[in-house]
Predict the 3D structure of the following.
Amino acid sequence: MYDWANSVYNLVISSAIFPIFYDAATKNTYALKNGFDVDNVDSNSVTVDFWGLQVSPSVLYSVVLSVSFLIVAFLSPILSGVADYTGSKKKYLKFFCYLGSISCVSLYWFDANYMELSMIPIFVASICFWNSLVFYNSFLPEIAHPKDHDRISAKGFSMGYYGSMILLVVCLAIIMGIGSEYTSISFILVGIWWSSFSQITYRVLPDNVFDKRPKTDYIKKGFRELKLVYKEFIKTHRLKRYLQAFFFFNTGVQTVMLMATIFASKAIVWPGDSGTTGLIISILLIQILAAFGAFFMAKLSSNIGNIKTLIISVVLWLFICAAAFIVTTPSEFYVLAACVGLVMGGVQAIARSTYSKFLPDTSDHASYFSFFDVSEKIGIVFGTAFFALAEFLFDNIRFSVISVAIFFIIGLLLLFRVPKKEINIENKVFSI
């Protein structure tokens, strides 16, 4: 149910309504400041003022997200060590949930005339959403046996797709039924949805499973806890190899998810003013098929294994990247969106459960998942940064797709290096 609660941020804020709102707001402000007719303004020529610099809104958006992920990568290991030492994972989960919800509500006051202030809520919301996940994900090995991890992980992602799709439809009903000037109400609804439905999670999730009884000096002891976990982590072989592969292929996945809407608004030729409607349709299509894809990949992994399933998924992602470079029409983009949906849910669910399955017998799950989280966030920093850099250098957002494909290729090659058995540093084989 926490997937149900927090995925509205990922869909409404990260993928659907806010990127479209952001593009329209910056475009309108640019037109007004320069005396242009907004209908005749090319999105590729729009710039915004940020601390005196004139930059592309999409480049600024990419950079802000990249910096937020750097903050997450710095904070999550420290906080996870403290959380493991004190047995307070749920408290950290609540803190980031509530602060993230407030940040989403704050987007109601977004004003493209004051970008320095207006980007703060999206910056903080991103930090809170992704930081909360390291604590949330780390509960998986504490509530289920390894044989159930794939199924439960897939169900969580599917619930997230369903819940976020419901709120997206409600937001669209407000925007299309009452008027686009009420779009910012969607951001308030996201904050309320996220904080409200998470109460179900807080009521049933266990707290302090291993009955930790911390003493004072939490920060110092937390660092010590993290250091002990790292020493244990480097003795593994399969887990390290898998995390290396995950870093690259997940970088590709997350970059696609974060930048797909902005890519489609610039690269696809939408007839008339159908661009916004077309983007929303494609996003709904992705959500519906992603829920199906998560269950399908979980079933496939039970038959052929997790690593083989991930290899198939990454190969499919490479075909998607190749197609994205050449698509131009809405109908072609809808087919591409359908393909993205089928593999997106599956690869996310299986990636999470695979890491959980590969963990050694430990009580420090938050610390272990902080390595998973840091790998993911640093990867996103590289992914969004290279995405922005490619557009900046070639002045064409299509070339950003090539940078994404490179991450998938490296991740695919590294997946072939993940051994079937776990081997510790003394080369002793043991099963997990």
In short: DSSP finds 15 helices and four strands in the chain. The radius of gyration is 21 Å.
